[in-house]
Design goal:
With 713 residues, this protein is α/β, with parallel strands linked by helices. It has 30 helices and 14 strands. It is globular, with a radius of gyration of 30 Å.
Length: 713
């Protein structure tokens, strides 16, 4: 129907813009030259001057929009380019540039539509394919993104940015050799490309070449000493390589250069804690805790366990991290057909000489194959000796997925018909959380690897027990709580304890009370250490036996002891030894003193297996209740205290009662052959009952819900 003007709205005639005068054309040429030289201010001023007299000049609108985008003025840039496209919608470069602004504005789907229009208009436009690949990466469609990056470099081989992003995409698919080749090509084209050097370091670290990775980061920093990504990546790699003092220096540089860069306050604090450098302990822990309370991306969930024992704050930290690093990818959970037995996939990079395997091996071996098909989906740790071989034999199927990207691993799990996927890694080193974010299985379980909530909406259950996660604290966990009847932590009945070496061979006195704490140094802190020093000052014959990962740890703890009036010689430091040798030497201790707010878990289990009583200080979060759970299961609740004062008082009592410590030792020795705590078969029956309950709830079409099991006996 025609309007008042007599023309149908859908067929309005758009008047073409008037051509520019020769003077305006000269101004436009000058503005473009300034733009190409990087003088955005001059270019923008001239573009606006042209538009004041020629408001529908496509080139001025488009290029002013592009300049605004380069200056970070995204809304204005998008508005100007959209206006330019009303003048001439058949300009592929404009659609391509618009996509960049839309992507930065968080409008990824609109950005993809703009890219699609650009490549439809000009399939040979390399920039449009490059921008489209960037959008697809943000949308989690990495295989499609790789195809577009390849199109971009095919159309324009001299395209270092596209080669760089191709390399990062290949890395995401765990195609490390191809990723390295792409990044090397980017650097051949642009030898001073800092981002490519940083990404190359990441790939080299993935390939197990840490020294070369560090060299790549340092090359980047030689070009730009305050480049945040290589600084951050170098600091994290140094941490992984146990070079904590060097990492501390790097994170200090990063904090000075970019104090608000994501996770830098937490990483700086954690590097210091790994060295037992407590000079800024109060200041930094207070700052990190406050920022977590504001949902800031300030610390990793695992390292934050050393900072705060608040279950509420740990949830906030994990939720912020998950949303940032591993947001849920919209997928419908696979629905297997009729179930004759449950297929349970254990997903881990720690099947080998690692605490997870030492705890879990006997349980996996005990699975009832008529009820449960156990599958290991494993990466890394290929040369971990006897424990690796044992884990490979324990599972019904053991599949190495080291080379599979997240999407490929999800497809494999669907092909395997996995009903329940168990994440044994959580938010710890080398995790595959991205697989769970893609809803790899109908039921997904957080177990053993991370002693905390993952803060992830796609993790359905957390395995715990009555003591570990009381009902009153369930709101502090993103998962529903599946409470096992005895203890959350499995133990291996085949754990062999060799003959105890002579104390003298360990540097320990024969006639003294030996207190020990073999927790990772990052779990130690001034309040608890002060209690330990009070013990040494009061009981002059006692010594404290600690685990020192580096000389820096030993030096700093000696300094802290001296500052508290204790002869540093009364601290004895144990070196790293094999797991079997460690279990044997543990028997030389009289009492294990736990840390807080991050308790011992597997480390406490080691001590109890070696018949060494453990004194713990319990908190309200999972990580602060682990040792208490073990002790309650073993019938030793008197070794669980709930305040620092009570912890210190109980420690003084025990040090003065050698007969009581000896009685505990005898009880623990007897328990190894009779107590359900050390019975992996019994644990396995209870675990299988938990899996069956989870699946029954799912089959009924109900959402996950918390439950507590009775002992299957």
């Amino acid at each position: 129907m025609a309007g008042k003007g007599g023309k149908a709205r859908g067929h309005q005639v758009v008047k073409p813009p008037a051509p520019l005068s020769p003077v305006q054309q000269a101004k436009l040429a000058g503005a473009i030259a300034a733009h190409q030289k990087g003088d955005l201010q001059t270019a923008a001023t001239v573009y606006r001057e042209i538009l004041s007299s020629a408001p529908r000049c496509f080139d001025a609108l488009h290029l002013l929009g592009a300049a605004c985008i380069q200056r970070g003025e995204l809304q204005e840039g998008a508005r100007l380019i959209e206006k330019a496209l009303t003048v001439d919608p058949a300009q592929p470069h404009a659609h391509s540039n618009l996509s960049k602004a839309l992507l930065e504005l968080g409008r990824a789907r609109d950005a993809l539509a703009a890219c699609d229009r650009a490549v439809a208009l000009d399939p040979s436009l390399a920039d449009a394919w490059y921008n489209r690949a960037n959008v697809l990466t943000v949308l989690g469609r990495n295989p499609e993104a790789l195809a577009d990056y390849r199109r971009a470099v095919h159309l324009r081989p001299q395209y270092p940015e596209a080669w760089n992003n191709l390399g990062t995409g290949l890395r995401a698919e765990r195609l490390y050799a191809d990723a390295l080749a792409a990044l090397d090509e980017a650097l051949r084209l642009a030898p001073h490309f800092v981002n490519a050097l940083s990404n190359r370091g990441l790939v080299l670290a993935d390939l197990g070449r840490p020294l070369e990775a560090m060299e790549s980061y340092r090359r980047a920093l030689a070009i730009d000493p305050v480049a945040v990504e290589p600084l951050n990546n170098l600091g994290l790699l140094l941490m992984e390589e146990k070079r904590h003092a060097e990492a501390q220096d790097i994170f200090a540089r990063l904090a000075a250069a970019a104090p608000h860069y994501m996770y830098v306050p937490g990483n700086r604090l954690h590097a210091a804690l790994q060295c037992c450098d407590w000079r800024h302990y109060d200041e930094w822990t207070t700052a990190v805790t406050a920022q977590v309370g504001r949902d800031t991306r300030v610390d990793f969930p695992f390292s934050f366990l050393c900072v705060s024992g608040s279950a509420t704050l740990q949830l906030r930290c994990a939720s912020a991290y998950t949303l940032d690093q591993y947001p849920a990818v919209a997928r419908v959970a696979p629905q297997p057909g009729k179930v004759s037995r449950l297929t349970v996939a254990y997903v881990s990079g720690d099947f080998g000489d690692h605490a997870v395997s030492h705890l879990l091996a006997g349980v996996v071996e005990a699975h009832d194959r008529s009820a449960v098909e156990s599958i290991a989906l494993s990466w890394g740790r290929h040369g971990d000796g006897a424990m690796r071989a044992r884990m490979e034999a324990a599972f019904e199927r053991f599949i190495d997925v080291t080379t599979l990207g997240d999407d490929a691993l999800v497809r494999l799990m669907q092909e395997l018909g996995v009903h329940i996927a168990v994440d044994l890694t959580g938010h710890t080193r080398g995790n595959r959380t991205g697989v769970f974010a893609r809803r790899a299985a109908p039921v997904q379980v957080n177990f053993l690897g991370l002693p905390a909530t993952m803060g992830a909406p796609y993790m359905d259950y957390l395995l715990a027990d009555r003591f570990l996660v009381p009902e009153s604290l369930e709101p502090c966990y993103a998962e529903r709580i599946a409470r096992l009847p005895l203890c959350f932590q499995p133990n291996d009945g085949r754990r062999l304890i060799g003959e105890a070496p002579a104390r003298a061979s360990l540097g320990l006195p024969d006639d003294a009370v030996v207190l020990c704490s073999f927790n990772n140094p990052s779990k130690l802190n001034p309040p608890v250490f002060s209690v330990w020093m009070n013990l040494l000052r009061t009981h002059g014959s006692a010594v404290l036996w600690l685990y020192a990962t580096t000389e820096a740890v030993a030096a700093n703890l000696r300094t802290e002891a001296a500052a508290r009036g204790v002869d540093a010689a009364r601290l004895v430091f144990a070196p790293r030894v094999s797991y079997g040798a460690h279990l044997a030497r543990l028997q030389a201790a009289d009492l294990f003193l736990d840390s807080s707010p991050f308790n011992a878990g597997a480390t406490a289990s080691d001590a109890l297996s070696a018949a060494v009583p453990v004194l713990t200080l319990t908190g309200d979060a999972f990580a602060g209740r682990m040792a208490g759970s073990l002790l309650h299961c073993l019938g030793l609740p008197e070794l669980v205290t709930d305040s620092l004062a009570a912890y210190e008082a109980r420690a003084h009592e025990l040090v003065t009662q050698p007969g009581r410590l000896a009685a505990y030792r005898r009880a623990l020795q007897a328990a190894r052959s009779s107590h359900p705590f050390f019975d992996p078969v019994r644990y396995c029956r209870n675990l299988e009952a938990a899996y069956q309950r989870m699946w029954s709830i799912h089959e009924q079409g109900q959402p996950p819900r918390s439950f507590t099991l009775e002992d299957a006996r």
